[in-house]
Design brief:
With about 130 residues, this protein is α+β, with helices and mostly antiparallel strands. The protein contains 3 helices and 8 strands, in the order E-E-E-E-E-H-E-E-H-H-E. The strands form 2 sheets. It has a 4-stranded antiparallel β-sheet, with no helix packed on it. The protein has a 4-stranded antiparallel β-sheet with strand order 6-7-5-8. The longest helix is centred in the last third of the chain and has 10 residues. It is globular.
């Protein structure tokens, strides 16, 4: 759900903490996203068990979206979550709930790489 805010110079759309600037022909470009990404390699044959431990017990404050992607061999999983701010992500990451969730996943994880990123949506031109 978007809230339209009309200013003196241009219209802005505020969408769940992200600032959007309208462009020609109705396109909207996202100015900035705050994203946490984790890539994990898990033990063969453990994806179903791993997925049961992955979901947090409650929706983290400040999390806007979360996605999970896994490889065909079901041994590599990429988690992508978008956040209102870096601070909201860091608060969740430091929480007892996240510590407990990570401990529950640990028996299935062989390796892990994670990081916080800032970026924006890339506009794909409409096909004629």
């Amino acid at each position: 759900m978007a809230l339209r805010v009309v200013g003196q110079l241009e219209d802005l759309i505020v969408d769940l903490g992200r600032i959007c600037i309208p462009r020609r022909s109705g396109e909207v470009a996202m100015e900035e996203d705050f994203v946490w990404m984790t890539t994990r390699r898990i033990k063969p044959g453990t994806l179903a068990d791993f997925k049961r431990t992955w979901r947090p017990e409650r929706h983290p404050d400040g999390m806007l979206h979360a996605y999970a992607y896994w490889s065909d061999d079901e041994q590599e999983i990429i988690g992508v979550s978008s956040w209102v701010s870096r601070e909201s992500c860091e608060t969740w990451r430091a929480s007892w709930e996240e510590t407990r969730r990570r401990a529950a996943m640990a028996p299935y994880v062989l390796s892990e790489h994670e990081g916080f990123y800032r970026g924006r949506e890339l506009i794909v031109p409409a096909q004629p």
